[in-house]
Structure formats: C-alpha cells, structure tokens
C-alpha cells in the first residue's frame, strides 16, 4: 500500500502556516519560500482547498490565503478527501466479488479509517502536544472478526 501523497503532506504544511497566521492573509510567495515549493505547485493545491471551503482567498495588495474556519473546525477527513482521495481497499462495491477476499472486511476497514479521520481536526494535527488516540480496538471488535479475519 502506498503512503500519503506528497500533495497531502505539502497541503498540511500549507494549512499549518495558515493556522499559525491566525486569520491574517498569507501570500503564496511566503508559503513558497517557507515550504521550499514552487508558487505554481502551491496554487495547484490551494485551488481545491478553496473550492472545498477549507481556505479562502483574500484579494488586494495585502491579500493572500487564510483558513476559511478555525483549525479546530476543519476535520482531517475533509483535507484527505481533497488532497489524497478516499482510502479504498476493495473498489468493486460488490459483496460477491471474486477478486477481493472478503469485501465486507475491507469495506469495514474503510469505514473505520473514515471515522478515525473524521474524529481528528486540523488543530489536532498541527499541535505537537496532541497525540493520536489508539483506534485499534474499534477495528479489532468489528463484526467480521467472529469467523476469523477473512484475509
């Protein structure tokens, strides 16, 4: 399985800078210098974030980008959906799929991941004092466990 996309990693760095600016507009040029990325690449990431209403653009001489909402109101699953895409293990959508071993297991795992991402805010991610909660018991106690993992 592949790791996090570079677009998600850089996007989170962008959002961290915007959160640290506390509502003040941050220019793409400042972000490019700070994150050592090209202006064009950052604009490519900011556009879908703006469309998803995670960031807002501010026009004018003192314009730039800012978070559209406080960091504690932006859920990680929103950001991941825009910059990474959904985590899909069994994309057939068919319970009788012959390619995937036990599609119900994979769909349950996808649900667990979605719920975990929805429970975390941008504020949780950018503040190093916050530690992720252990979510393993939720996965282990799933209904698919009774007959074995099925994998």
Automatic annotation (TrEMBL):
It comes from the Bacteria. InterPro entries: TR_Rrf2-type_CS, Tscrpt_reg_Rrf2, WH-like_DNA-bd_sf, WH_DNA-bd_sf. GO terms for molecular function: DNA binding; DNA-binding transcription factor activity. GO terms for cellular component: cytosol. The keyword DNA-binding applies. The keyword Secreted does not apply. Keywords: DNA-binding. This is Transcriptional regulator, BadM/Rrf2 family. It comes from Sulfobacillus acidophilus (strain ATCC 700253 / DSM 10332 / NAL).
């Amino acid at each position: 399985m592949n790791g996090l996309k570079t677009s998600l990693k850089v996007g989170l760095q962008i959002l961290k800078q915007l959160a640290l600016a506390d509502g003040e507009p941050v220019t793409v040029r400042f972000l490019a210098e700070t994150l050592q990325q090209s202006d064009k690449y950052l604009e490519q990431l900011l556009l879908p974030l703006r469309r998803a209403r995670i960031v807002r653009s501010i026009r004018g001489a003192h314009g730039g980008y800012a978070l559209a909402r406080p960091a504690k109101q932006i859920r990680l699953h929103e950001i991941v959906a825009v910059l990474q895409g959904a985590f899909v293990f069994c994309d057939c959508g068919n319970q009788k799929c012959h390619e995937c071993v036990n599609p119900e297991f994979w769909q349950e795992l996808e649900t667990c991941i979605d719920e975990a991402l929805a429970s975390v805010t941008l504020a949780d991610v950018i503040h190093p004092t916050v530690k992720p909660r252990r979510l393993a018991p939720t996965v282990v106690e799933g209904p698919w466990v009774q007959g074995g993992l099925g994998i």
